[in-house]
């Protein structure tokens, strides 16, 4: 995988959920992400993580699903130096950043995501139909790596 590899073993620092592709389900994602980050001691990342998770889940529901019968998956995990969040949907069409016009009512979400995360990407979902879009926040200062 080019950017975000889920841990081989799901442990205390990994959470995954699946839900129907309905906007009303987004509140469950927010609650789960908030709770998990608190349990992991990453309260300082909650606001940005929720902003990004909301955007990726909204995109998955709006652009990646054909109906509420489809399923969206959300995974979050923490490595030694990164917090990663991944959203999967059944569409093979990968997201692309675009330049929204001044009067456009949409089209700015991925620009916002790219502005607040350290890295992001998308790829075909291995072993199943669809794709996954992931983001990563660095949790340790770059100076700490030296």
Automatic annotation (TrEMBL):
SUPFAM superfamilies: ATPase domain of HSP90 chaperone/DNA topoisomerase II/histidine kinase (SSF55874). The keyword Lyase does not apply. InterPro entries: Anti-sigma-factor_SerPK, HATPase_C_sf, HATPase_dom. CDD domains: HATPase_RsbW-like. Residues 19-135 form the Histidine kinase/HSP90-like ATPase domain. Keywords: Kinase, Serine/threonine-protein kinase, Transferase. It holds the Pfam family HATPase_c_2. This is Histidine kinase/HSP90-like ATPase domain-containing protein.
């Amino acid at each position: 995988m080019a950017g975000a590899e889920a841990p081989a073993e799901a442990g205390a620092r990994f959470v995954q959920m699946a839900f129907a592709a309905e906007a009303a389900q987004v509140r469950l994602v927010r609650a789960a992400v908030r709770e998990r980050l608190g349990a992991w001691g990453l309260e300082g990342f909650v606001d940005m993580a929720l902003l990004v998770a909301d955007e990726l889940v909204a995109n998955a529901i709006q652009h990646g699903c054909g109906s509420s019968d489809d399923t969206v998956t959300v995974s979050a995990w923490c490595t030694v130096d990164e917090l990663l969040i991944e959203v999967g949907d059944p569409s093979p069409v990968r997201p692309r950043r675009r330049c929204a016009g001044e009067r456009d009512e949409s089209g700015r979400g991925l620009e916002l995501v790219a502005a607040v995360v350290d890295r992001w990407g998308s790829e075909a979902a291995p072993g199943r139909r669809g794709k996954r879009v992931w983001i990563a926040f660095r949790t340790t200062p770059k100076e700490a790596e030296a």
